[in-house]
Amino acid sequence: MTTKSADDRTTVLVCITCRTPTDPADAPRKGLALAEATSHALGAEPGIKVERVRCLGNCNRGLSAAIRRDNAWTYVFGHLDAARDGPTLIAGARLFSGSTDGLMPWRGRPDPLKRGLIARVPPLDFQGELPEATDAT
How many domains does the chain have? Predict the structure, then answer.
């Protein structure tokens, strides 16, 4: 079994400024509650870390989080629930961490990470798809 370096870990980024559209402006931010639940669900597991971020720019689809790894795709999720999805995000991070192709497998992905997928962003070194062959005659 190989150990991931600190730079190769899977990171769960949780927006702490998220709130639902019906929350009063002065109410505690549910994004912060989601970040706390995610950190609690992680415990002291090596290879995965949780970071709190201010605004993922996904406000109309909050609560939001992203899961990323170096040299892999980054996944952005919305419509998360603070009471339910801390463990959901850690389950997704575990699944992604075990991936060998840089993609989060669909099979085994928790349902909120299927329904709540907002975007999949390619890695920085992404070379793109090869163009289809065309007949130049």
Answer: 1
Cβ atoms of residues 117 and 64 within 8 Å:
no
Domain containing 91: what range? 6-121
Q: Provide long-range contacts, Cβ within 8 A and 24+ apart, for 74-77.
A: 74/120, 74/121, 74/123, 75/104, 75/113, 75/117, 75/119, 75/120, 75/121, 76/117, 76/118, 76/119, 76/120, 76/121, 77/112, 77/113, 77/116, 77/117, 77/118
pLDDT digits (tens, 9 = 90+) for 37-52: 999 999 888 899 999 9
pTM of the model: 0.84
Cα–Cα distance between 118 and 58 in angstroms, integer?
A: 9
pLDDT in tens, 71-120: 899 999 999 999 999 999 999 999 999 998 889 999 999 999 999 999 99
